[in-house]
Each structure stands twice: as structure tokens, then as C-alpha cells.
Amino acid sequence: MWRLDECRMSEYGHPMPVAFRTCPLCEATCGLALEVDAAAHTVTKVRGDADDVLSHGFICPKGVSIKELHDDADRVRTPLVRQADGSFAPATWDEAFALIARRLPAIVEEHGRDAVGAYVGNPAAHSLAFLLYGKVLLKAIGTKQIFSASTVDQYPKQAASALLFGSGTTVAIPDLDRTDFLLCLGANPMASNGSLMTAPDVRGRLRAIRRRGGTIVVVDPRRSRTAREADEHLAIRPGTDALLLMALLHVVFDEGLEATPPSPHVSDDDLATVRALARDFAPEAVAPATGLDADAIRRVARAFATAPSAVAYGRIGTTTQAFGTTASWLIDVLNVVTGNLDRPGGAMFPLPAGGLPNTKGAPGRGRGAAFGRWTSRVRGLPEVFGELPAAALAEEIDTPGAGRIRALLTIAGNPVISTPNSARLATALDALDFMVSVDIYVNETTRHADVILPAPSPLEKAHFDLVFQGFSVRNHANWSPPVLPRPAGMPDEWRTVLRLVGVVTGQGPDADVAAIDDFVARAAIGKEVADERSPWHGRDVEDVLAELAPRTGTERMVDLLLRTGPYDLTLADLEARPHGVDLGPLAPRLPEVLRTPSGRVELAPPALVADVARLHDALDAAADADPGQLVLIGRRHLRSNNSWMHNLPLLVRGPERCTLHVHPDDAARLALVDGAPAGVRSRVGQLTATVEVTEDIRPGVVSLPHGWGHDLDGVAMGVARAHAGVNSNVLTDETAVEPLTGTAILNGIPVTLTPVAAPLATAG
Ligand SMILES: Nc1nc2c(c(=O)[nH]1)N[C@H]1C(S)=C(S)[C@@H](COP(=O)(O)OP(=O)(O)OC[C@H]3O[C@@H](n4cnc5c(=O)[nH]c(N)nc54)[C@H](O)[C@@H]3O)O[C@H]1N2
Ligand SMILES: Nc1nc2c(c(=O)[nH]1)N[C@H]1C(S)=C(S)[C@@H](COP(=O)(O)OP(=O)(O)OC[C@H]3O[C@@H](n4cnc5c(=O)[nH]c(N)nc54)[C@H](O)[C@@H]3O)O[C@H]1N2
Ligand code: SF4
Ligand SMILES: [Mo]
Fold first, then answer.
1. Domains along the chain?
2. Cβ atoms < 10 Å from Cβ of 139
3. Is the peptide bond before 550 cis (omega within 30 degrees of 0)?
4. Are 349 and 358 in contact (CB under 8 A)?
5. Is the pLDDT of residue 518 over 60?
6. Which pLDDT tens digit goes with each residue over 683-726?
7. pTM, entire model
8. What's the 65 CA to ligand 3 centre distance in angstroms?
9. How remote is the CA of residue 434 from the centroid of ligand 1, in Å?
């Protein structure tokens, strides 16, 4: 099934076919060149694809490890079904689906649709099966109990973007390759390879900024690898970015540095509102709370506002914190007020080939965003983008009453490691009547399942990064056919999703997947033919369906999206271009990109303006804060990927990565020793971590990466168990959520540290 795109001679002198495909492992979407050994059903070598239109040969160690992932003997290859003794036994697909069809509909029948919960994890955002059919499945289940990794991640940014621009996928992306000034808050793209900013080879792109005379300022409590690439590093106190941003705006307004007019797409009233809001946040006023020097804030504000172009960009450190949505909003307010929204070198809107909500419907105006259309059963937390907060998943399972979750479906997610108060969630999962996981490992979460349905390896699946092409620093499109055929009996992942649709819609375990797929395609075509702006407007649904034949499944859906998308492209066009199609630098899209009711950038959304009261409280609270209180933040390492790639020897070798960073002053004060264990305790839990004393962290702050803690009973990942580490989410607090989106506060957790020689009292 591989294509002979190119042929190399192997070191033994026989020809080796090379296949090209996009790496699905992170948002950078690098092009890989893979030497294929079809006979052995594997690849022999992984390189960067020098001709890839976006990544130009860049690759990171995770991309190289795709071979180990494919070969990993612990990767699940057949359905697993829990036995009476609690162990898993392999089953056929028919047996697994027969069991699901027996159990799941019965629970719905007895307890209603909301008795079934679903949690969708991060890899689903890179998987065509879930991107194209996940909504169909969730709708078919008909439950409000939908959770995902997005509420431990980026929803604050998407919510702020939806309020400003009218849709949650209308995110303004830093125009990294043309900017003269990058203000990077709470992101470490040198390790993460960029997020909500698809930009392979971040290091090259950052260095190019400085080479062309530009400036980089990084705001982070840690001197991260990105901070080391910067001209200036502001070691902020965790959770206070919104205060800093207010102070930057204060200086811009106070010193008359705003662009005039900043944008024809912003109303004078909204501008006046944000100007008035910033008045109380002079640099001197926020200095104590942020821990930053007022002069430094003034200097950065002036430099940002007077640079030929500039862009503020924030990620995890600004979203999974107490002011996530407000900080995300203020980042864009700073971009707008300084004239940097929608201009080259500023924050711009991509135009992806597969389209987004901002390429559909009437350009320039829309219904805007609505949140809180329903609330969670136990805590009354608001719905956001059709989901409830992941921080509320455990209580929705373990709190009795009507509407309690009794059955759970996890899809490419590991919430036991990734969401706050992991211990509570792990216990709750055991209280379920039934659990199904679509996943490739028996890990901390899936070990609780009754049935695990595996997916093909990434090399056995087609790939098209539908979402992240829409967050890219350059417009491009790249289609990857499978590199290797699927093993006998292994269905494509989209077929598994649609077979689940069959079960939950009462069609039994053997529903006609092809018929469901046709139904979905017809519905999508039906929308296009009814849309007067679609190239298919007025056409006959069956004619269009025939035109797309013989493609089915994800291929047909991608072809459909391309043909109705903003460029004149078909899937066949992309199939002919294995290195992708470059669609040019980002171009201005205002006002066409907007879907707000006013047809403007709504710079002062009432919900966010109201949240400024909490910022005032934070200023007051800072004055009374206990200076000795340590707070915990997270971090990422280049050779790690959330919780699930620690079973790959290439990535875990070398020094221990799951260490607790502690500043020398704090270590001395608390008698903590580099390399020795320390007890860490929070409101919800405690663990023991290895201390790494480093000047790179701000005093008063400690940092532990997330995604570790693999030594739990039942985890069938040999390498990961041997490099278990500890789970930082044992410490994070499920009751601490950002109020606007319910996103978990994962940065800024109050903790106490003790040398481990002093034994800890039991249970926190
Ligand atoms: N404390 C703290 N917690 C955090 C974060 C933090 O910074 N600090 N970060 C948060 C963020 S940003 C995220 S995105 C979440 C991630 O949270 P999750 O998405 O819940 O966790 P992952 O570790 O990404 O787990 C991915 C799961 O998908 C499975 N998988 C991998 N590939 C495939 C596939 O092709 N098909 C299927 N079906 N399954 C597959 C893996 O085996 C694994 O079980 O964690 C969050 N948690
Ligand atoms: N190698 C690797 N790459 C990844 C992942 C991975 O696990 N490993 N995960 C992927 C995923 S799912 C995501 S969402 C992205 C995330 O991408 P990034 O957001 O770039 O992720 P991090 O590297 O965790 O960087 C967050 C930074 O925020 C800082 N920080 C913590 N609290 C605060 C705060 O209150 N204020 C400020 N200003 N900074 C703070 C931390 O010290 C850290 O350096 O990475 C993706 N890429
Ligand atoms: S940076 Fe991301 S996309 Fe690129 S090779 Fe590494 S994991 Fe894959
Ligand atoms: Mo994420």
C-alpha cells in the first residue's frame, strides 16, 4: 500500500521504497520520509522530509520514534475483553462488539442517555476518524456528559476567540516568519514544538526573528529553553499574566502608543471600555502581584507598541490557570490596540484548505458564541463548546443521583493521568457499570475498561491534519495515505467509530457501516447543496455522491471538504503532491473571517469585562499573600508527549525527566537536596518526587512535568513502568477551575515540600 515515491539503496544494496507522510504526534505536522520494509511490515528508517512544504526536513525525536511506536510489542493489536478474574483476554471484533451491544444500550434503556459519558483525548484531534465521525458518534449517544482534554488545555483561548471573532476555531495565530517582536507568554515551543501555532522548526523560526533584527520576550516563571532563545525573560509569578497584560495595555494607552485607529473593525465604544479597564493597572500597581519590575513592564510595552510589527502569543501557562480566558482575551486586545491584528508580522487568521466554521456561511457576520447552555449535574459548571469540564468527570461518576454516569467511553484519552485529582477519578472508574476504551495501550485509564478496541498504528492510517492546518503559520495542505497496509482483521479507526454508532443507534453489533457512512456523507453533501455560497449549491445529492465515488469513509469526507473549501483543490490533487501544497503566507482576512453578531471584532465582551473584577481582587489578595507559600506549575520536555509515549525506549533514555525543579533558595530553606526525594503535598494528594535544584525556576515556584506515574496496577507498558515517574495530577485540584470555561487550573497549585526523611502523615 506504500507508494514508491522515491527509491533509495539500502546499506545492503537493495532498493528501499521511501514513503512520505505527515507526523501525527504533535501540532507541528512535520513531513516524514520513511524507508519502508513492506515484507517485515515496518519502516527501517525515519528522516525529515526535506521537500515538505512546511517543515523542510525538520524532525524531532518523537517523529523518529514513530518506528518504535509502530513496532511496540505492548501496543494493543486485537480487542481486549475483561474476564471474571479481572484480567484482559484477546477477543475477536465480533465478540467485542457483541458485548458492547449487550451492555451499552441496556444502560441507556434503564437510566437514560446521560448515563453514558464520553471522554475524548488529545490524539483524537489528529485522527481523521474522530475529526470526521466523532461528532456523529457523540450525537448518536445523545448524552450531555461529554468531556475532553480541551478543558485541561486550550478552551480558554478558543472561548476568548469565539467571543471576539465569532467562532472557537477563529484563533489569531502569530505570524512567526514575519514578525519583528514576539511576546511569548506561558509557552515553551522549543520543547512543545508549538501549540495553536503550527510551526515546525520553532527554533529556526525564532532564531530568524532575531537574525532579522527582531526581538523576543518570554514571560514564564521558569527560564525555559524558549526563554534562553529570547532577548528578555520576565520570570512572572504563576497565574498573574492577565495583570501583566493589563499593565502593558495601561502603558500603551497612557503613553499614547496605540495605533490610530487600531482597527476599522473595532467599535470606539469597545476601545473606550478596554482603555478604562486598563486604567487601574499601572505597572507599579501590578508589580508586587506579578513579581515583575515596573520599569521592565514599561520597557516591554513601549518596545512592543513601537516595533514595526509585533505579536503577543500565549499557551498552556496562560490557559490552564486561574485567569485563562481573561488572559487569552487580553493577549488579543494587546494585538488589536497596537495595530497588530490581521497584519503581516502580527496575529493573523489562517485559511485552511479543508475549511473551518469561518469559511462557511455568510462572511463577516454570524451568530457568535454562546456558553453555559446547560450546566453540569453536580457542580453546575457551564457547558463550553458542547462539553462539560474534565475536572468534573469524577464527581459525575461517583455522586449518586439521577443522571449519574454509569457507562463511560474513552477515545484516545488518558484522563487518569491527564486530569486533576487523578486518584479520585481512578476510584470513580471502578464504580462504573461498563467502560469501553478506543485506545492503543492498556494504560492507567484503559486498565479500568471492560472492552478495549484498538486502532491501527499511525503508519497504517491515512492522515490529514484538518484542525492544525487551520492554526498554521503558513497556509498549506498535506494528505498522507497509509504507509503500510492494516494487518488482517484490523478495521480502520473510522469503521470502529461508525460501528459504535450502529450499536448506540440500536442497529446492533453488526450494523451496516457502509450504509452509515453513506448516510453521513449524504447529510454533509445535503448541507452544501442547500448553501448558496457552496460550489455545489443546487446540485443533486446523488450526483455529487457519485462524483466522489469510489472513495468512502475519511477519504471521501476529506475530498468533500477540499472540494467545498476555499481553494480549488481535490484529494487527487493532494495525492499527487506527497510533500504537500504550499498555499502561501497568511493573508489579511478581516472582516470576512468574522462570525460575530455585530460584524465587528467584539473587543469588550461583557463576560470578560465582568471578570476584570476578579483581577482587582487578585491585586488585593497579593498584598496579603503568604510569601512562604510554594506553588506548583508544569512543564514539557521535547522527548515526551503528554502521558502516552513513555513506552518508547528512544524517548525515555537519558537522565530522569520527571523531576521536581526547585530554586536553590527554596531548597536551602527547606533542607532539600539535589537528587534526593522530597514529599510534595497539596489539598488533594501527595507524592514523592526527585528534587532537581536549578536557578532556572523562580523562587517560590516548583515545577513537575505531567504525564507520568505509570507504575499503577494493571498498566501493561513495560518500558513506561520502568521509567514510571510520578503523576503531577495527583496534586492538582479538581475543584479549582477557571470560572468562564471550567478549564482546570493546573498551574499555580499551592503545595508544601518536605525532605523525605521526615515521613509524611497518610493521605492528603
Ligand atoms: N498537570 C497537567 N496536566 C495536564 C497538562 C499539563 O500541562 N499539566 N496538559 C494537558 C493537555 S494540554 C492535554 S492535551 C491533556 C492530554 O490528555 P489526554 O488526551 O487524556 O492524554 P494523552 O496523554 O494525550 O493520552 C492519549 C491517549 O490516546 C491513546 N492513543 C494514542 N494514539 C492513538 C490513536 O491513534 N488512536 C487511539 N484510539 N488512541 C490513541 C494513548 O494510548 C493514550 O491513552 O493533558 C492535560 N493534562
Ligand atoms: N515534547 C512535547 N511536545 C508537546 C506536548 C508534550 O507533552 N511534549 N504536548 C502537546 C500539547 S497537548 C500541548 S497543549 C502543547 C503545549 O504547548 P506549550 O504551551 O508550549 O507547553 P509547555 O512546554 O508546557 O509550556 C508552558 C510553559 O508555561 C509556563 N508556565 C506555567 N505556569 C505559568 C504561568 O502562570 N504564567 C506563565 N506566563 N507561564 C507559565 C511553564 O513553565 C512552561 O514553560 O504542547 C504539545 N507538544
Ligand atoms: S515536532 Fe511534532 S510533528 Fe514534528 S516530528 Fe516532532 S512530534 Fe512529529
Ligand atoms: Mo494539549
1. 1-59 (no CATH), 80-154+371-453 (3.40.50.740), 175-354+594-609 (3.40.228.10), 506-578 (no CATH), 625-755 (2.40.40.20)
2. 14
3. yes
4. yes
5. yes
6. 999 999 999 999 999 999 999 999 999 999 999 999 999 999 99
7. 0.97
8. 10
9. 21
